[in-house]
Amino acid sequence: MRNILNTLRLGKRTSVILLALLVCAGLLGPFFLQHDPYTQDLLARMHEPVWSDEGDWTHLLGTDHLGRDVLARVLYGVRVSALIGISVALMGCLIGTTLGVLGGYFGGTTDRVISFLITARLSLPIILVALAVVSLAESSLLIVVLVLGLLLWERYALVARTMATGLRQAEFVVAARIQGCSHLQIMWHEIMPNLFGNLVIIGTIEAAMAITLEASLSFLGLGVPPPLPSLGLMIAEGKEHILFQPSLVLIPSVVLFLLVLCVNHCGESIRNAQRKD
Amino acid sequence: MVYYILRRLAVSILLIIFVSLISFSLIFASGDPAAKLAGEGGSAADAARLASQYGFDQPLVVQYLKWLTAVAQGDFGVSLYFGRPVQELLSQHFALTAKLGGMAMVLALLIAIPLGIAAGRWPKSLIDRLAMGFTAFSQAIPPFCLAFLLIICFSVKNTWLPASGFDTWKHYLMPTVVLAVFATPAIIRLMKAEMETVLRSDYVRTARAMGLGSNKILLKYALRNALRPIVSLAAAQMGTLLAGSVVVETVFAINGAGQLAWVSILRGDFPAIQALILIFSLFYIALTLCADVVNGWLDPRVRALR
Amino acid sequence: MDHQEKLLRVVGLNVDITGGLVTKKVVRDVSFSVDQGQTLCIVGESGCGKSLTALSLLGLLPVGAERRVSQLRFKDVEMSTLSQYELGALRGARIAMIFQDPMTSLNPVFTVGTQLVDILLQHKPVTRREAIDRAKYLLTRVGINNPEVRLKQYPHELSGGLRQRVMIAMALMCGPELLVADEPTTALDVTVQAELLDLLKDIQQEFKLGLIFISHDLGLVAKIADQVMVMYAGEVVEAGAASEVLRNPMHPYTELLLRCIPRPGHTVPKSVLSSISGTIPPFEDEIVGCPFYDRCPIKEAACKLPGVQLDSRGAHQILCIKPGALRMGEQQ
Fold it and tell me: Whole-structure pTM over 0.90, yes or no?
């Protein structure tokens, strides 16, 4: 019993290390690989991973239906996912925090308009809108990031708005006001620093969300365009061969799962650490 | 309460108009929809002909108002790909998705509420850690990965369940589970957090001071207070769930609104895309309104809101 | 003193709060007793451990706080060894408690009626009808008009004073023998305070209640107390009959507290009225000698010696090596 509890608790620290490893592997790994993720080798198609009976050491995780090295593609996929996660989280943060702080700080009509925008955004089905836009506007990495960034900001806005509403009446804000600071100065110097901790936590949630969403888009064939390797795309391509070589689906699935799990867990560790202070 | 609901209704109508504007303008994401329709081989003349046929050459405001008036009368236009009225397609496909989503939501609530209550009642206990472990797992696994995992386990390695289709209850089992797992983590977390807060409250202390039994305190006095945010969340999750069915329906080849959406998007079927996005939004708005009504029933303070 | 006469007897009560690595001793070795039909007032500034003392009696301490007690005897029951379940049968039925903040102490989503009726149904084999009748009777008894209407109302529809009356009615539902009131009037307007105090006094006489009344307001205490216990930093510094303690305070802390009460006709020097300077010593440390040492105006080296403890002068207990010295000194 005690053992089980301890193992579960250990999960937190491991997740940080694992995430660091995954991202490092994604960033640095390709420099050490002999294969690049795009080269097709039709003679070496559908190689099994090294641990199966038919696997060999030239392709550690095997090859896909076009003979591309799965390990190289997975590492590039992690890189793409990380890039999307981080940029979407930052973009959403920029939009959401701006709106939220404006609404919370000024209140009144501004607040009502911004609350309306938040509700409107919530009522739009993210995945359908993202699919439609990406499909209509010729898919590219940039488009995917832009669309997801424009959709995933409501959580920042909600939290920033609530906190700014509370801080508006705080003594240090009133004091700054009396000293003649402009609204912009107050929002930037007095309110923003207080939001920082929460924004980081939401950032991890949104990054994980963006990674999952991108994978879903790619899986439906409308994410980052092939041949750019993406974990979702690999799963979609692998599903055609799920009966013959399940590893083509399993490997990217596991990596995607671990990536999202670690990002979420890191966010939680940050939250717990902040709560203790 | 009546006044409160009326006000929420008014906001909802504004929301619907705003959302319809967005769903309408989405088709211009490609730049010129007529050129898109004409295809890569299409000439400028083709595009111009199509533009006049679908009214793309008229001012945007006129197009939007025309579309909105038609939609208000239940006319979503004719699908470019299926060649049938969109509302016919919708009524045909949406029921299946709603059924699937409804079952998934019921399952999710059945799992999440008891787990959340237990985790909030006994923090740091084994059940709390198991619940949190399950939450971490279900939050991290993308729905289509879980779908494949289930297919590999139950349809490929064993042949207990069919991997696609929607004829018998067995077909619904895996999609329902996938959607439910997708919806549970947020509900478990919120339920736990709310329960912890409520159990620390003064009125629960009063109930204990008056000697009420611990089960009665937990399941009557505390639960009703903790449930209000859960109702709101569940309504929102239900909306997300319906939209999320696009992935699940694709994997399990279920011919619902999700798959209809996917096909329409792949084929650039503008009228269908516009209609589907609007309908999913409408569902979300309607669900949140229902949540407000339920909360009014649960909590007298909501009833007193103006 | 005969043991059988006492309604409640507490010996050696300690409460520890453990948070992280430090353990705070917030109530230290407190002993007292309450007779049937009598009122014991526990007095002290906020944070001196009086609320935790009260909560610990009923086993209602918050998570992280722990009680150690050598004897906790309620009539014929030794409560210190009871399980939470057995305690539950006593709470509300024979010992009831009312709290400071009536705004948050009533459940917002149930009607007053439900909350009253559930208590009686929990403890007594009565029908719902009978429970409703009892609730109506008690609402009338605590001075609420239109009990039928009030039963169907929710707490947010009532004023603070009414809510506190409802709390009192809840406490009386099962006809308890001991009532613990934790600052029941602090959150209310002054006029309402006086009414509620009179109500409590009335009810105490009618039901022959033992009453533990916790307050920081010596003015209120003077009106209601039979016995007074003054706490400072988790320790009892003075205790005894109300007439004795309030008229003849022997501990400098009690004396200073009494001086803080503004009285008509007396012009108190502003410096004395405003506050007693200094703060309570940290609860992490073991206190040797008098806990009030740091803030005492007449302290001397001997006050810090380990031998300084609660001493009896008849029924009057004082924790001071120079009892009454502060008052005497000023009068000279």
Answer: no
